[in-house]
Design a protein that fits this description.
Blueprint: H1 2-15, H2 21-26, E1 33-35, E2 66-68, H3 70-83, H4 85-94, H5 97-100, H6 106-117, H7 126-133, H8 136-150, E3 173-177, H9 184-193, E4 197-201, E5 215-218, E6 225-228, H10 238-241, E7 245-247, H11 250-259, E8 266-269, H12 276-284, E9 290-295, H13 298-310, E10 316-320, E11 336-341, H14 366-384, E12 391-396, H15 405-415, E13 419-421, E14 443-445, H16 447-450, E15 455-462, H17 464-477, H18 500-503
Parallel strand pairs: 4-5, 8-9, 8-11, 9-10, 11-12
Antiparallel strand pairs: 1-2, 3-6, 3-7, 5-6, 12-15, 13-15, 14-15
Length: about 525
């Protein structure tokens, strides 16, 4: 019974725009039960001492209990009920269910009728089950009449799909090898021992389109990225639960990959949760240096702490703080040279985005996009005001020009020749819009062009003279520098081109000692 009550409550919160589907489900407090005695499948290979070893466990590693159960069940119930909501409302109305059962609330009725007609049957006992089963025949008859009326034969044909630029896209499953815990070669070998076939390194996007269910391939741009069939689910796989691999869309890997801070650097991840980009930065840093990560959401930050612990990240410092309120003149940030800024955005580029189930015409309205763009400009200006910063990478998972090229152009106009835009990955096929001179120096990603979520990345670099001046003024005025010290610079009509090689410095050859599978 608790499952249906919780699902109904989340539906009500979604109607009140109180959060996203995923956030509301995972913050619901729904109980998760622990499973004992779960065993990983055993490897066919042998350990270095010649004895058989258990597949999915590293030498010397103890068996651990993992939570399983019903957050996923709740999540699935909420999502499926949302998908069928127009159908459910029509059936509930035509049968007068709420008039006959006056104590029954609409959202409770939706989840109950969904599970009865479209799910795996009612799971609860007691009064709820007895109440809804009284009307079982009427509800099933109403569903049958609705199918006849709409001239369809299966339940899925009743669904009304919203028009979307990402509709019908099926993306590969991207797996980033966590270089803090393992090597690409050992992870490839692990999957091969599980009867997967490794196809080598991809040479074009087309190579990623026709993978079999037991095939995988190396990505053509990111050496630590492996690509699997879209339907492969690795959430329960040992390498994932132990932090050796990260399930992360390729486009989301681009910001850290392109920022590429040298080992030992001081770096800021400005809007860090849920933490995939933070763990990627830590791997690039080889866990050396300092990684400051900020996020305003307490629960997301707590979840992020768990993710980073599992990934073996140790160079980080988490702060439950609004990045816009971080003082750039604080001495602890005087050595920060690299900032990754992935601020709140419309999320319009995400394929199969859950909020498409609840979005309305205001979700991507121009006033909302302009409000988001205003916040994004403030965040970028704040990032550029750190006295020692040399590079700031800006990314969104939005397809809208207002949040992407327009924001970049505004920042360039505000800062004139103090900063320049880096020409990112000239070989990347999908470029930024040519709405201003340097627009194509940014990169975009899109499901049809790059087989990723919709994404946008731009990188700002301070001019050499400005870097030197910042260092001098930082040493002299570190206690009195204002938070927005770059806002009053003049506009420059010409900005020198940054070398494309500087945008993609080579990966460090020095590697951390890895655990072997």
């Amino acid at each position: 019974m608790a499952l249906y009550v919780k699902a109904a409550a989340i539906l009500g919160q979604l109607e009140g725009k109180r959060g996203s589907v995923k956030t509301l489900v995972y913050n619901s407090g729904h109980k998760v039960r622990a499973a004992r005695g779960e065993r990983h499948s055993r490897a066919r290979g042998r350990a270095s001492d010649g004895h058989p070893r258990e597949r999915g466990r590293l030498p010397g590693e103890e068996q651990t209990e993992r939570p399983r159960g019903n957050i996923k069940q709740l999540f699935a119930l909420v999502c499926e009920t949302l998908k069928y909501t127009p159908v459910l409302e029509e059936i509930i109305n035509t049968t007068d269910l709420l008039k006959k059962e006056k104590k029954l609330q609409i959202n409770v009725a939706k989840v109950l009728v969904y599970d009865l007609l479209f799910g795996k049957g009612l799971k609860c006992g007691g009064s709820w089950k007895a109440l809804i089963m009284k009307h079982r025949s009427q509800l099933k008859s109403a569903l049958a009449r609705l199918k006849v009326k709409r001239k369809v034969s299966c339940n899925e044909d009743l669904l009304e799909t919203k028009a979307s630029s990402t509709a019908g896209c099926q993306l590969p499953r991207y797996v980033r090898v966590n270089l803090l815990k393992n090597t690409v070669e050992d992870v490839i070998d692990y999957f091969k021992r599980e009867d997967y076939t490794y196809l080598g390194q991809a040479t074009s996007v087309a190579d990623l389109k026709h993978l079999g269910r037991k095939q995988f391939i190396g990505d053509l741009h990111l050496p630590e990225l492996l690509v699997f069939h879209p339907k492969i689910d690795l959430h329960e796989h040992f390498l994932y639960t132990a932090g050796h691999i990260i399930l992360q869309d390729k486009a989301s890997c681009l910001p850290a990959h392109l920022l590429n801070p040298p080992t030992g650097s001081h770096v800021i991840d400005a809007c860090a949760a849920p933490g995939n980009k933070t763990s990627h930065l830590a791997a690039i840093l080889c866990n050396k240096g300092k990684l400051f990560a900020f996020d305003l959401d307490t629960k997301r930050l707590s979840t992020m702490g768990t993710l980073l612990l599992r990934a073996g990240v140790t160079c980080h410092e988490l702060a439950n703080q609004d990045f816009l309120l971080v003082d750039p003149s604080n001495p602890k940030y005087q050595n920060v040279k690299y900032i990754l800024l992935d601020p709140s955005c419309s999320g319009s580029g995400i394929v199969n985005r859950l909020n498409q189930l609840t979005d309305d015409e205001t979700s991507s309205s121009r006033p909302r996009l302009l409000a988001l763009a205003s916040f994004q400009c403030k965040a970028l200006n704040h990032a550029l005001s750190f006295p020692g910063v040399e590079r700031v990478i800006y990314s969104t998972c939005s397809i809208h020009r207002e949040e992407n090229e327009d924001v970049v152009e505004e920042i360039l106009q505000q800062h004139g020749n103090r900063i320049r835009l880096v020409n990112l990955m000239p070989s990347w096929p999908y470029r930024g819009l040519a709405t201003f001179l340097e627009g194509p120096w940014c990169i975009r990603a899109a499901p049809k062009d790059t087989l990723t979520n919709g994404f946008f990345v731009a990188m700002f670099e301070k001019q050499c003279g400005e870097m030197e001046q910042s260092r001098e003024s930082s040493a002299e005025e570190v206690t009195s520098r204002p938070a927005a010290g770059l806002n009053s610079v003049s506009v420059s009509e010409k900005r020198p081109v940054a070398s494309s090689e500087s945008a993609q410095s080579q990966k460090k050859s020095k590697k951390v000692k890895k655990q072997k599978v």
